Every structure is written in C-alpha cells, then in structure tokens.
From TrEMBL:
Localization per record: Cell membrane
Main subcellular localisation: membrane
Domain of life: Bacteria
Domain ABC transmembrane type-1 residue range list: 63-250
Family from the record: Belongs to the binding-protein-dependent transport system permease family. CysTW subfamily.
Record bears the keyword Cell membrane: yes
GO cellular component entries: plasma membrane
Cross-referenced SUPFAM superfamilies: MetI-like
Transmembrane segments: 12-32, 62-86, 98-121, 133-154, 175-200, 232-250
Stated name of the protein: Spermidine/putrescine ABC transporter permease
Amino acid sequence: MNRRNRILLSCVYWAFVAYVFVPLILMVLMGFKDSKFIGFPIRSYTLDWYMGVFEDAETISAFLYSVAIAVLSTIGSIIVGTWIAVLLEGRKFWGRAVIFGMTILPALIPGIISAIAFRIYARYLGIEPGMGAIVWAHAVHNVPFVVLVVMARLSTLPKSQIEAARDLGADPLIAFLRITFPYLVPAIMGASIFCLLLSFDDFVRSFFLGGYEPTLPVLIFAKLKSGMSPEINAIATAALLLTAVIGVWAERFTRRMNKDS
C-alpha cells in the first residue's frame, strides 16, 4: 500500500470516528448546560440535570422496568436460541434450511413492520399490551442473534470429544451437559449481553406493545414531545455509560473465557 492510499484510508477512518463520536460528545456536553434549552454557546455548567436523573422516580422506574424486560426476554431467547442452534448445527435433515430461514427471519424484518405484526398477533392471541407482550416480542426478535452466535461456536467443537464421551457410556444428555454446554458458555454469555443491550434499547416494539408503564426509550420519546432539554441529554448519557460499561466488561469476560476453554 502506497503513501497516498494510507493517507486516504486514514482520512476515511477519522471521518467515520468523527461521524460516530462527535454527536455523542455533544450530547454529553449538553447535559451539563445550565439552561432549560440545549444549544450553543454553553455559558455555564451544572450537575443539576444529572442529579435530577437519579432523583426522578419516573426515570428510575422506567429504567428498572426496562432492565426487567431485558433480563426476562434474554433468558427466553437464550433457551430457545441455544436449543435451535444445537438442533441445526452439524445435522442434515429435510426442512433444515426452512427452519433456519424462519429462525433468522425476525432479524431481517424492519422494526416497524415487526412491531405492527406483533401487535396484531398479540391481540389475536388475547395478550394484553404490557410487560408480557414486550418480553415476548423482544425474545422472538433476539432469538436469531443467539442462534447465529451459538452455531458459530458449535462449528468449532471437536466432534471427537462428543464421540469419546459416547464411547465411555455417556448418553446424549450427559454428553451435552458435560461436553457441549461448557464449550458453549462463552458464546452464550456473549449472546446474552448482546440481547440484554438490544432489548434495553428497543423502542419500536416497546412502543407498540407497551401498556401504561413506559420503558426508558419510550419515556425519553415522551419527554421529547415537550421539547429538547438537558434533562433528556442527561438520561441518554447515563444510559450510554451503562451500556458502554456492560459492553467493555462483556468483551473482556468472553475473551477470558475463550482463553480458558
């Protein structure tokens, strides 16, 4: 690669970095503005907006509600997704491609179309809008990502280990619990963190299937109707920091588990 191409790639890289991080930096700065409206110039700074986030009962309630939904939907998607991945990986049977395609389909459908379909189907099944409906929709949407991650991990599992366990008298369940499952733990943990963050951040399905109690993204959207204020920036910054910390921890955790395995 010549010097001209390196300079061009460097410019493209830093332009992309600026495109991603400059809006986030501005969002964080606006949360410190000592004014009821966002915008430049920032003549004075304050921590009142950030302190208000942790003192606002509505925001704390929406945050805990979002966490509960994320945890429950992740548990469901991990159970179903892992089972489907084990069923599909390394096996050839009639209808395998159809099952795989139907499993991946929720990740390919646009969010607004998916949310409307879930709303119609929930009404048909008699599921009332609220926490149960949101957990169900989030879990279905997250299953494809679990399947892809777990299948990728399963494809690297040496088949000789399972065959050795079977030769020593282990039945399929024991072989799965003692050989396959421990090998899948890093992938399951990585998929779990991804699904948690995906569910926590899901606005469209939460908006269409939610009841009277809002999730955090829905609450932020509701506050936007009354105009942009530093309070919204403070809430978004707190959520951003939380997801960033969880993401960094998850990356280091899964890397450590991959080394150990």
